Amino acid sequence: MFKPLTFYIGLRYTRAKRRTQFISFITLTSILGIALGVTALITVLSVMNGFEAELRERILGMTSHATVTGRYGQLDDWHELDQKLKDFPHVEGAAPFISGQVMINADRRVSGTMLNGIMPDYESKVSEVADKMKAGQLSDLIAGQYGIVLGLELANYLGVIVGDKITVISPQINSTPAGIVPRMRRFTVVGVFKVGMYEYDRNMALINIEDAAKLFRMENAVSGLRIKLDDLFNAPQITQSLASALSDNYQVSDWTLAHNNFFRAIQTEKRVMFIILLLIVAVAAFNIVSTLVMVVTDKRGDIAILKTQGLTSGSVMGIFMVLGTIIGVVGTLLGTAGGILLALNVETIVPAIEKLFQVQFMAADVYYISELPSKLVWADVYAIASMAFLLSLIATIYPAWQASKINPAEVLRYE
């Protein structure tokens, strides 16, 4: 079917004569349609891959790979548990924490916030917040001095900077002669962090764990231990082993449980987006059908003459399959090259467009992150290119089969 003569004639049919310029135009639009579809598919999937990777990195930069808590919401023997975890396989570090919801007041501004009590020396073992400080240091959280570190968006909302005083209001209550009042404590802002994720930058504050124990009346207990693992993707198996090794007085969870629905939703969205954009590629690929039908109609006389000279029906079919395959290959290659270039440079192109038109595509208070990340996965590129080529090849079958069924006697009778 695909002899040199067949390939040569199929290649020759890609160039139209003057009287068939419209067919050449349709061929060009088919190529461009496939190229644009493949480019869009590669770029969108790369952006979604980057979005997922960036979210995972930022979430796990502030939260832990795994968490051990007490069955009743607190750990009284966390020092002993910390020593056990040091000898446990795959555990790289652990840090105690005390967590609770509070209200923060600065002048006339009030905001609900998640307040985390941490040990600055331990915190760097399990999170990256020490590397995300915009002002001050985690080491400035000294026990007894009641210092507090705020997220950048929270600090901006409250209108405070390092050195300002704020009031932290705990939901726990004090009984006084004047009645029941909430527990309050004045704190001094000693630092500001920015992780680039609005949820944390707007709704999180850090204090020393001893100050948190006094505020929440935890005494020598903590809420739990945050754990860093050597392989975050193996967290479910490791935490299961850890739970089996510990007694029933402890509860062990990992990041996949805490954010399972979120990342599952992203995966579902990726699959749906892939199918939608693949349909665009399919529509472009099946434009080849109309192109080849027009070429077959235009070349009926040529096909009849070639058949009378001994060209078989299989070879005629091969001619038009070669023509359609060339259209598909060129479109796929152009689209793949365009998609790769766009995916690798989207983090530069998008800010330039935003600056040029004075717009912001991803507002920080609406989306989890305000930049448009991109992560090119070569397996996706190979899969997209292969499917585009396969769809193009399938689209050639029917017109080529119709061409092979042309009867030379009927065609040449009217020539």
Q: Would you mind describing this structure in some detail?
A:
- There is one protein chain.
- The protein is an alpha+beta fold.
- It folds into 2 domains: 4-58 and 262-412, no CATH class; 72-247, no CATH class.
- The chain has 14 helices and 10 strands.
- Strands 2-3-8-5-7-6 form a 6-stranded mixed β-barrel.
- Strand 2 and strand 3 form a beta hairpin.
- It is elongated and about 110 Å long.
- 36% of the residues are buried.
- The model has no long low-confidence stretch (mean pLDDT 83).
Key words describing this protein structure:
415 residues; alpha+beta; 2 domains; six-stranded mixed barrel; 14 helices; elongated
In summary, what is this structure?
The chain has 415 residues and is of the alpha+beta class. Helix content is 54%, strand content 20%.
The computed structural class is alpha+beta
Number of helices: 14
Helical content class: 40-55%
Low-confidence stretches: none
Total number of domains: 2
Strand order of the largest sheet: 2-3-8-5-7-6
Largest sheet: 6 strands, mixed, barrel
Q: In what range is the share of β-strand residues?
A: 15-25%
End-to-end separation: 27 Å
Per the principal axes of the C-alpha atoms, what is the gross shape? Answer: elongated
Number of E-state strands? 10
Mean pLDDT: 83
Radius of gyration in whole Å, from Cα? Answer: 33 Å
Q: Please write the string of helix (H) and strand (E) elements.
A: HHEHEEHEEHEEHEHEHEHHHHHH
